[in-house]
Amino acid sequence: MTSDISVGKYKLVKPNKVTWKSDVNSFIDNCTIYLPRIAYLVTEKQSTEDINAINEKKIYDIKTGDKVSVSLGYNKKNDLRFVGFVKRVNMGIPVQLECEGYGYQLYDIIFNKTYASVTVKQLLTDLTAGTDIILSKEIPDIPLKNVRFKNASGIKVLEWLKGEVKLSVYFNFNELFVGTMFGKVQDRVKVKIGWNTVKDDDFKQKNVDQKINIVIREKDQKGVVKKVKSEKTGKVTEKIVKPKQPKQDKYSNDKLVKIKSGIPAQFMREIANRLQTKEDYKGYEGNIILFLKPYVRKGMVMELNGGIYHEKSGEYFIESVSGEFGEQGGRQTAQLGFLMHK
Question: Is residue 198 domain-shared with residue 308, that is, in the same domain?
Answer without folding.
Answer: yes
